Amino acid sequence: MCLRFFLTIFIFQISHGQTIYPQDYFTSPLEIPLILSGSFGELRTNHFHAGLDIKTQGRSGLKVKSSAEGYVSRIKISRFGYGKAIYIQHPNGYTSVYAHLKKFNPVIEEYVKKEQYQKESYEIELFPKPNTLTLNKNELIGFSGNTGGSGGPHLHFEIRDKNQKPINPLLFGFDIPDTKPPRLDAVYAYALNDTSYIGNGEKFSKLRLIPYGKSKNKTPKLEAYGEIGFGIIATDKNDYAPNKNGLYRVSSFLNGVNNFEILFKKFDFNETHLINNYIDYKFFKEDYKRVQKLFIPNENNLSLVKNSENKGIVSIKDKLSTNYKVYIDDFEDNRTELTIPLEGKKDTSFHFLKKLRTNLYEVHKNETKSVELNNTKLTFPKNAFFEDVTLEIHKSGDTLFVHKDIIPLSKNFYVNYDVSMYNQNDQCKLYIASLYGYKKKSNYLTSKLKEGIISAKTKNLGIFCLKSDDTNPIIKSIDLKDKKWMSNYRFLKFKINDKDSGIKNYRATINNQWILMEYDYKTENLIFDFNDFTSYPTKNEFKLIVTDNVGNSTKFESTFYRKK
């Protein structure tokens, strides 16, 4: 029995790294079988996924329980992101996180609402003391939901170490049935400098996949020369869900020697933005598919990358044959293989002509760069980009074209418009927007006005413009009409929206007393629970003020009646 136990631990260490994580400490936070709609490290927009997305049968309201004993160390409620989230600190140093909740258990709910009413704010962040909200293992902490940036009802679950670095929860012994090997959808080859090429002089090429055997693939022999890199599109599915989840490990070997490995085991939130340097960002922006690069083209300190001999770059010499192999693994060690036979072929007849373009500006990675065009100024701070870049920038009227959004940034750059020619009242209605999509829809950028200069920051290149918003937000009452009896209503419901700069804040009162109204930006619902108060006078005065991002506001007032 002891031999079998130690053999199991040994195999676990070899498969999933040398650190041993407690296998029976954390239990499932739900009472239903664990089926995933999202995995740890999965490639998401501008970030790596920090936990597991657990399906809740397509509905909200399932009981969520503490995965282990501990105390509530943090509570955060936000309109976006994690929505309603609870953080539990455990005696062994780990923290578990439960996000997108519909509501908390009665004790936590009362604690949070008291603070919300005191601060007169729906969005709130609290750090209770260790003895304030203690929990036993498997104790109810709340109910699953769809709050924040969630795309549908589910529970987002994380486990973090003492430094708040997220760790793959599967390392703690959660049983997620998975007998299917990862799926390889595409493989691409990259020529990485001016003297390298693929096939007939190409710099980028999609290779033809030839399936053979069980979960094995190969490509036709690839003729190439110089420094070459490869990338793949691959996903994984669990047994009981159709969702395309992320991988656990991808490793490549050159003539049997490991030259690249990425392991989705643990990372730091400070590096999650590096995802845009890890994927082929240009390909993602143009084709909406994420290619995972199996090489490091520049300085990328992504800790998920464990081995990178020569940064994963393959140097192909003339007339030499090379065997390149890729192993794609999920957490349960189901594997898909890829073999690419390489043949070095140098051809001096290839000449690569650079396209001549105007309005070009060189931005060096280690320098701050400013570009001024008429009444606008762009500032790219030091290390805004991962490498030196050349940007095409021009302006037409108040529309500013800052290259195509195909180059990833490591930090924000700044867009400034001189609006001093407008009168002060008009200046206050102006904001900077980015334009996106085929129809060039407008997206408000947080804009600040100071001494005739309006400024905004962003981490995406693209098209920007100066816009004006003189339209008030819209308030639509669902149930409340003036002088209506509301005794039989549990909730007071509204729809609010603003089509231009967007809603910044709102404030509601009953009889001049602030009330808590929960806002869901996805549905535009604004809801008050009458149970927040134990009694009401017969006659009540309701007031709601909604303000957009440039200061336009709309007021709704009504009298309603309730039985005492």
Describe the SSE topology.
Elements (H helix, E strand, L loop, with lengths): L1 H15 L19 E3 L4 E2 L2 E2 L3 E4 L7 E3 L4 E8 L6 E6 L5 E5 L1 E4 L1 H14 L4 E3 L7 E2 L4 E5 L9 E7 L5 E2 L15 E9 L5 E2 L5 E4 L2 E3 L3 E3 L3 E14 L13 E6 L2 E7 L11 H4 L2 H7 L4 E2 L11 E3 L6 E3 L4 E9 L5 E10 L15 E4 L5 E5 L2 E5 L8 E8 L2 E4 L10 E6 L5 H4 L2 E7 L4 E4 L3 E3 L2 E6 L3 E7 L5 E4 L6 E2 L5 E7 L5 E8 L2 E2 L2 E4 L4 E5 L9 E10 L4 E9 L3
Briefly, what is this?
The chain has 564 residues and is mostly beta strands.
Q: What does the model show?
A:
- By secondary structure, the chain is mostly beta strands.
- The protein is globular, with a radius of gyration of 28 Å.
Compute the number of structural domains: 4
Count of individual beta strands:
47
Overall average pLDDT:
93
What is the CA-atom radius of gyration, in angstroms?
Answer: 28 Å
Helix count, DSSP H or I runs of 4 or more residues? 5
* SS content category: mainly beta
Beta content: 35-45%
Distance between the termini: 69 Å
Shape: globular
Q: Largest beta sheet, briefly?
A: 13 strands, mixed
- Helix proportion of residues, in percent? under 10%
Sequence stretches where pLDDT stays below 50 over 5 or more residues? 1-12
List keywords for this structure.
nine-stranded antiparallel sheet; Chondroitinase Ac, Chain A, domain 3; single chain; 4 domains; Glucose Permease (Domain IIA); mainly beta; 8% helix; 13-stranded mixed sheet; 5 helices
